[in-house]
Specification:
The chain has 401 residues and is of the alpha/beta class. 32% of the residues lie in helices and 19% in strands. The strands form 6 sheets. The protein has a 6-stranded mixed β-sheet with strand order 6-5-7-1-8-18, sandwiched between helices. β5, α9 and β6 form a beta-alpha-beta unit.
Amino acid sequence: MAQPAAQSATWPDDPVPLALDTAPVPEYGTGSLADLLPTLAAGQGVPGLTRNIPELIPADRNCVFLIDGLGWEQIKAHPDEAPYLTSLLPSSRGGTGRPITAGFPATTATSLASVGTGLPPGLHGLPGYTARNPETGELMNQLRWRPWTQPRVWQPYPTVFQLADEAGIHTAQVSSPTFEHTPLTKIALSGGSFLGRLSGEERMDLAAEQLAAGDRSLVYTYYSDVDGKGHRFGIDSDAWRGQLMYVDRLAQRLAEQLPPRAALYITADHGMIDIPFDEQSRIDFDEDWELRAGVALLGGEGRARHVYAVPGAESDVLAVWREVLGEQFWVASRDEAISAGWFGARIDERVYARIGDVVAAAHDDVVITASVREPHESAMFGMHGSMTPVEQLVPLLEVRS
């Protein structure tokens, strides 16, 4: 009589963690935010920089308009609210009609540092919204710069603006006066002149003036309220749509004032996704004893978590997080995330321990909140941070005079 086949030790409905090689790693070196300014400045003759985005044609005068929170997918989904930006979609990435990638995590502090330094997160060293300072053991908020840390120790590399200014390029940043003296501006966007203006219209007009002020110019301008409305009300709200309509007009206003021999590039630091306020979509770390076990610090943000384990508990924390979240998040050890290239091809030694012992990047429409530790962030409707297309893909729209 035939013997019954041995039963598998794995039940059919056991969770299967997402394979790490399915994570869409940013296009560092060929088409990421970190490659934009080096490509433009190299085309202007600034030494030591490389044209990493080969689709872009050099121009004597370059202006980058960065719209915080306005990803590629959001523009495509709202042609009625953004008719001008929509009309420019075919121009993206040198006329290929393709986006570029933000970098991981897709969050403002990391992305602005990548833009300004021309380096991926593994080199500039801002690997998330919050990250552990290995010198103190504290969580460092890299957007608000709390607790205080010496800026040039935290990020020692020169910015592309500084290199351009030293090479004789007329260099200027036009933004809100609020940002002029912040540490993030100092380590990511300093070099040449900082010119503060309150209204969006004033910024567009002044950016155009600064672009015309030199035979070779590199100008950066920024608008943040699209991101702010998205966080508070979501990208399916009237408030967000109103901001999109406004910034669409700003972009056209700037484009219509370009001086001769100029190129305008309209981009963003990340996209955004709305997360419902229900238990399936929002996993509260502060209420989940399994996820808390062995964790000393929870860093990053809801869709891109750095998890710092109690010494000796690293492998256990990885196993639990992968078991609990592995179907919804790419869950990697620090070394796995680094080997996969999530933070770029190389990691500076000073940056290594800033990255979590475990790194969790959302695949599904879900976040890991922390209602007690992070009440403000946990109450946000719109979220970002991970490597999904809606967060990761950003435009590189182009207008030339």
